[in-house]
Amino acid sequence: MTECVLTHRRSVDEYTPTVGEECIQELRELAEPLCGARVLHLNATAAGGGVAEILKALVPLTCDLGLNAEWRILRGADEFYKVSKALHNGLQGMPIQLKSHMKEIWLKYSNLNADLLNSRGTYDFVVVHDPQPAGVLRLLHQKNGHRNPGIWIWRCHLDLSTPRPDIWGFLKPYVEVYDAAIFTRGEYLQKDFQGPRCFDVPPGIDPLSIKNRLLDDREVHSILLRYGVDPGRPFIFMVSRFDPWKDFRGVIDIFGSVKKEFPEVQLVLAGGGADDDPEAWSCYQRTAAYAQGKSDIHILWGQNGVSSPELNAFQQAASVVVQKSIREGFGLVVAEALWKSRPVVASDVAGIALQISHGETGYLARSVDEWVEAITSLLRNRETAAKFGNAGKNVVQEKFLITRCLRDYLKIFRTLSG
Ligand code: UDP
Questions:
Q1: What is the DSSP letter of 147?
Q2: Which residues have CB under 6 Å of ligand 1?
Q3: How far is the centre of ligand 1, averaged over its atoms, from the C-alpha of 195 (Å)?
Q4: Of all atoms in ligand 1, which is nearest to the CA of residue 305?
Q5: By alpha-carbon position, which residue is closest to atom 9 of ligand 1?
Q6: Cα(112)–Cα(118) distance, integer angstroms
Q7: How far is the CA of 31 from the centre of ligand 1 (A)?
Q8: Is the N or the C terminus of the chain less surrounded, counting Cβ atoms within 10 Å?
Q9: Exposure string (b/e) for 174-196, b if CB count within 10 Å is 16 or more?
Q10: Can you give the C-alpha Rg of the chain in angstroms?
Q11: What letter would DSSP give residue 262?
């Protein structure tokens, strides 16, 4: 059987002080006709990465509103995760060759998971996240000889705007059989994608999670000291899965240039892996080797990611938070930093540009020179840094909290069920 992920109970009422009574009332009204509906979220991992982070809050909040929601992860093994990461890379535009044995492996596990799902009975809504489990629906149709009951939604978190054509060509027939598809931005949609009804829903962060609650200064201070970071000196911070797409090495190079102007500055890089990401450990090792011999660089590793109180403390105390992704569907880490009123410098890629307005809520940088200039100017000018931080927090409050995301799902469920 696919594995069920248990989540901590959450109550929407706890969110009233943060989002207001009206927002909670709207959620209750939207949920009322859906009461008792069986909802399944299916993805590849329970820990590490943005999807797991979102489901940790979205699933229990959906339950609290009276729907019967569950979260399951598909069954896989190393050979499957290697192929699904290659698919992921190819869909984000990396030159990848999808050889026939790789397709066979992907289909073998998609078949296995389709069988496991078949034994679970039916759901009113099934939300299948990302490409890893996306094959199950077409295989269920083939096995059962009819369209599967319930409303099936493919939720793609990737920036799908420039995929390798052969990789997209392979996946397309599996995702076109869905009733609906959700993308973070409408622009991610390929023009030849036909069939599902499409919606845009950006993700949201959970303001009440341990990662995003305000920590007191003493706690922040003691966490910094525990990891050897000097709280008396400024530091630049980035957290992500150790993944080549996040360009940790690029950050180290930029840090070298920033340090020439600000010799006292430190760099903290934090991250880890995810159960479905076989590249993380080697990416971490390459990053650590690259940093060796360079002063004031701290690298933190956690198997399924560095834990929440630590991340919270580093995000809260950083002088500048950076995110140097080469491609990013959204980048929850950016919203997390903005929520803590941090000035952020990040790559000018679609998912991040959705969150940051250049020169108003942070800086978007393209060239190394722009990166260095943006970071040094924020280190120099703390007033601008504070102004960006406050403006960024307002944007997250308005657009990128989990309650807005929950509202969008409920609206989509209602639209699709007529
Ligand atoms: N994360 C974490 N520990 C780590 C690295 C990342 O808890 O060591 C969390 C991070 O705070 C964020 C999520 O994992 O909530 C990453 O989501 P994002 O959308 O930024 O990137 P993804 O990993 O999905 O590409």
A1: P
A2: 49-50, 53, 211, 239-241, 270-272, 302, 305-306, 311, 330-333, 336
A3: 31
A4: 8
A5: 49
A6: 10
A7: 29
A8: C
A9: bbebbbbbbbbbeebbeeebeeb
A10: 21
A11: -
| pLDDT tens-place string over residues 379-410 | 999 999 999 999 999 999 999 999 999 999 99
Q: Which residues contact 266 (CB under 8 A, 6 or more apart)?
A: 229, 230, 233, 234, 235, 236, 296, 297, 298
Looking at ligand 1, which residue's alpha carbon is closest to its atom 10?
Answer: 333
**CA-based diameter of the chain, in Å?**
67
Return the closest-CA partner of residue 132 out of 296, 322, 252, 2: 2
CA distance 133 to 369: 40
244-283: pLDDT as tens digits: 999 999 999 999 999 999 999 999 999 998 888 899 999 9
Q: Which domains does the chain have, with CATH numbers?
A: 3-204+401-416 (3.40.50.2000), 217-399 (3.40.50.2000)
DSSP code at position 43: E
What does the block give as tokens for 208? 């009440």
Q: Looking at per-residue confidence, does 221 or 148 come out higher?
A: 221
- 248 Cα: distance to centroid of ligand 1 (angstroms): 14
Tokens 């489990």: give the residue: 133
CA nearest ligand 1 atom 17, residue: 50
Which amino acid makes up residue 13?
A: D
Amino acid at 342: R
Q: How far is the CA of 271 from the centre of ligand 1 (A)?
A: 8
Strands 151-156 and 180-183: parallel
